[in-house]
Write a structure and sequence with these properties.
The chain has one domain. About 70% of the residues lie in helices and about 10% in strands. The longest helix has about 45 residues.
Length: about 280
């Protein structure tokens, strides 16, 4: 039981600073807006209480960049606009604080890893951040605009007026962007599995046809525009990332040694966390 309490305490010490940072920034983005202030003849943009918050401005920018002209946004419930702005503020806050979050996360789990595993973890931190950002930007700028254009073209063909719920738009846009960022982490996951001996490069190379089929099906599910263009646009880079991941990692013939509780506790003790209390004689 003492081991559990010590682990909870260590978890709290690692993540509470990030939680404070994340929560405070979220409230700032939701309640404050950007205003230009003259300072010695130069304009400086600062956060002040305003009618239109940073989250609201970000939502309008998303609408202008993604949704075709003629589509009207509607609010179907009294709290929809309020919830949407909170969701946008949470998303922006997480993006800004994510490097700090992953740094604390790596610090927490590094105590339970071998030295070689910690080196692997340190090596994948920057590539993971780059790939996630690239995937999110690719989905936002390259996939979402043609998807919306194609889907709303069907409404124009039958003479129907196009409406879009603000909550549906925010959930779909943010969720799709996040999904694309996670999917672009594919080579990182493959490299980790290779490096710890779960699989090897030959397995990935022998099964690339099945992987390509899975990418096509997955892309068709999350890009429901019906044209097939966005499906190909998403499946092609995923296939390229798959081949990149298949060339990485170290081939291992022997499995990693099993971790015993004593060795795990010893390594965590060296990292500055005491996991078991000495029994009183």
């Amino acid at each position: 039981m003492s081991l559990l309490f010590d682990e909870i305490k260590a978890f709290k010490n690692i993540f509470v600073p990030w939680i404070y940072f994340f929560t405070g920034l979220t409230f700032m983005l939701f309640g404050l807006g950007i205003k230009a202030v003259e300072f010695f003849g130069r304009k400086i943009y600062l956060l002040f209480p305003a009618e239109r918050s940073v989250a609201a401005e970000a939502f309008l920018k998303m609408k202008e960049a993604l949704v075709p002209e003629g589509v009207e946004f509607i609010v179907t419930e009294p709290v929809s606009a309020f919830v949407v702005q909170i969701g946008v503020a949470l998303a922006i806050s997480f993006i800004i604080t994510s490097p700090f979050f992953f740094y604390r996360l790596m610090k927490y789990i590094s105590g339970a890893l071998y030295k070689k595993e910690r080196k692997v973890l340190n090596k994948i931190f920057i590539p993971s951040a780059f790939l996630f950002s690239a995937g999110a930007l690719f989905g936002y700028f390259a996939i979402l605009p043609p998807t919306f254009n194609v889907l709303y073209r069907y409404a124009d063909n039958i003479g129907a007026k196009s409406f879009f719920s603000v909550s549906d738009f925010a959930v779909f846009t943010l969720g799709f962007t996040l999904a694309c960022g996670i999917m672009f982490l594919l080579p990182v996951g493959m490299a980790i599995l290779n490096s710890i001996g779960v699989t090897n490069r030959d397995v990935w190379r022998d099964n690339w046809r099945y992987a390509f089929l899975i990418f096509l099906v997955l892309s068709a599910i999350i890009t429901p525009d019906g044209s097939g263009i966005t499906m190909i646009m998403l499946s092609v880079p995923l296939t390229g990332l798959y081949f990149v991941g298949s060339t990485s990692g170290i081939r291992r013939d022997k499995p990693m040694p099993k971790r015993s509780n004593s060795s795990l506790e010893a390594r965590r003790g060296k990292s500055g966390r005491k996991l078991i209390k000495k029994k009183k004689k």
